[in-house]
Amino acid sequence: MLTQPKSTTINMGGGQPPITIGTGKLARQADGSVTVQCGNTILFATVVANKEPKPGQSFFPLSVDYQEKFASAGRIPGSFFKREGKLSDYEVLISRLVDRALRPLFPEDYFCEVQVIITLISSDKDILPDSLACLAASAALAVSDVPIQEVISEVRVSRIGGQFIINPTRTQMAESDMDFIIAATEENIMMVEGESKECSEEDLVQALQVAHNAIRVQIAAQKELAAQAGVAAKREYTKPYRNEEIKNKVYALGQQKLHAIATSASAKHDRSDAIKALGIEIAAEFDVETTPVEDLALIGHYYHDLQYDVVRNMILDERVRLDGRDLVTVRPLAMETDLLPTPHGSALFTRGETQSLTTVTLGTPQDELLVESAQTSDYTKFILHYNFPPFSTGEIKMLRGPGRREVGHGNLAMRSLKQMMPSAEYPYTVRVVSDILESNGSSSMATVCAGSLALMDAGVPVPKHVSGVAMGLISRASDGKYAILTDILGDEDHLGDMDFKVTGTRDGICGVQMDIKVDGLSMDVMREALLQARDARLHILDHMYATVPAHRAEVKPHAPRMEMLIIDKEFIGAVIGPGGKVIQEMQKVTGTTINIEEVNEKGEVSIFGSEKEGVDAAVKWIKGIVMVPTVGEVYEATVKSIMPYGAFVEFLPNKQGLLHISEVSWKRLETLEGVVKEGDVVKVKLTGTDPKTGKFKLSRKVLLPKPEGVKVAEGEDKGE
To answer: InterPro entries attached here (predicted)?
Structure first.
């Protein structure tokens, strides 16, 4: 049965195109479906939820996938199969932005599987789709009966020319010095992700406030669309079985013992072993013969709840943490650089029980990474990869490709360090690889610190160190009490309400990633967390500067050597040669890699090689090609052929002249035999050019001492 499509339009102001949300036309068998259009960009979002949870389901199975159809931009995929494959890192990052915002808003006891799919079906070259993805997902949920508790939205806020702009165009983004995507409900901030060129904490708070005002406009539009669609109430769902008697017995048996473990300030694995042993001890108190199976299954659930309550109450009431620290102290730090002999840069960063071994590799422009989306194909010269092997947490797992977590953590570290990377004129492609060797909280922030140290060790001209710290939050609704935690542990992340990562230099913030597990965060708590994070960041930076105060003056001896030459545009063809013959010969003879680009009506020539001698030889060769012969200059010339009347010599690449027999020596010569031969290198002076033929006139004798008694004709060069 056909339905009447419904739509609503959002005017964001600031000269931005209006946003139209529509439903009732596409994918009507989904629980909820919408299109979101801004300019020519159209996102299509659907949501489907199972009516019942799977038997034994104990967690909320939400999946969010964002995909771009290449047809949306009139392109055919470049893969072998010419079709869209697995999600790219870019698509994974957008999927994560939406997932992290939606997940906390479902009821805690809702275990039905939910799938959200967002597809880019039309792409405007100037309208960025990532800032509209969460709006599309939330709107699809809003027009469905899937029981999400609140309507949310996401916007991008950027500062351009000192002004905050909501959802700027791709063109405007090129001038931005702050770029954040923020998700919020009508009352609270839920998620923040982004980067900046050393903004202040107050700048970030102001950006959040501007974004929140815009989000409220989008939320109102979603509610209006839901009303048009006739969504009256959310569906009822089957609640999981619970038994208060089992809960009370688990709490009575374990509360004091668990508190003793939590306050013992033990190491991660010791504490984990003790908690596991106590869980086995409590389970043994239940008679498996007389206790119903469904009640036995609840013991682990209530034991986890007990851990949650004991640890949180300990932190809130006693202001003591699992490892014995107070709320603001950073764990012990250890740093080392140049510990690996062959990588171009290396660093080992340890903070408590979290450790990153990071390497830096310097490559040529041919090593640049192609980053493709439906609309763009861009190359980047700065790459960061983050690896999280299972041994870092003492576990055994299959080694597979990077998951969404690795992609997200690596992206945060990359965006943070990128703020200090040299400009596009820096010829090296730089790859940073962080291998996490130990993990107990905030390995992504260890990656930022280790990456900064390794870049300095590699001689990359970064002007300042960048450090990072993860902040946590424990809150209690019953009395409004809360505690902000500096440098959180893995357990504090798992049992807490917030994971708030902040990176930056001594002068400002470079990157932020925040996830909230409860319904929002007030602006006052956000401001307090930012200031507490700044103190921790500066503390870590002091240790980093004490380890490596500045980048190396030069790259290491075994790193690729690099030289850059700027030549006139007209010489680009001469350096390349017909069919690339000249440049290929240069690379083969000198053992270098040479890259030429035309930039601003000039030729930028980058020469890379593992040996300085080869790089110097290539530089000399290129300078010879582009050098204009100057009368009066002295050159080293190679004898190419001998004639009865003189020798033809090459004094610059591809530039030859005749060294007449009378110009070889002050003595009269009948032949050049025994004086010079092919392959000899002789110094010659360019004395002029033939006015009729334009041929170069060269002399060797003018560089030789003139014998006594030899007369010099009028106008002849008297030599040196």
So the answer is: ExoRNase_PH_dom1, ExoRNase_PH_dom2, ExoRNase_PH_dom2_sf, KH_dom, KH_dom_type_1, KH_dom_type_1_sf, NA-bd_OB-fold, PNPase
DSSP track, 630-658? -TT-EEEEEEEEEETTEEEEEEETTEEEE
Residues 6+ apart with CB under 8 A from 109: 239, 240
pTM: 0.85
Q: What is the dihedral of CA 662, 668, 673, 675, to 10 degrees?
A: -80
Cα 414 to Cα 301, 383, 384, 562, distances in angstroms? 38, 7, 6, 24
The DSSP output letter for 454 is H
**Pairing verdict, β 681-689 and 696-699:** antiparallel
* Model pLDDT for residues 7-18, shown as the tens digit of each residue: 999 998 877 899
Largest CA distance in the chain: 129
**42-83 pLDDT, tens per residue?**
999 999 999 999 988 889 999 999 999 988 988 888 777 788
Helices (H) and strands (E) in the chain, counts: 15, 29
Neighbour-count burial of 546, counting CB atoms closer than 10 A to its CB (0-12 exposed, 13-18 middle, 19+ buried): exposed
Compute CA 632 distance to the chain's CA centroid, rounded to the nearest angstrom. 54
Residues in the chain: 720
- Cα 299 to chain centroid, rounded: 42
User: At which residue do the structure tokens 């090296």 appear?
Assistant: 428
CA 543, CA 335: separation in Å to the nearest integer? 8
In this structure, what token pair is assigned to residue 476? 């209690």
pLDDT tier for residue 585 given thresholds of 50, 70 and 90: very high
State yes or no: 367 annotated in a binding site: no
Q: Which of these, 80, 203, 253, 223, lies nearest to 153 by C-alpha position? A: 223
Question: Do the annotations mark residue 493 as ligand-binding?
Answer: yes
Is the distance from CB of 133 to CB of 373 less than 8 angstroms?
A: no
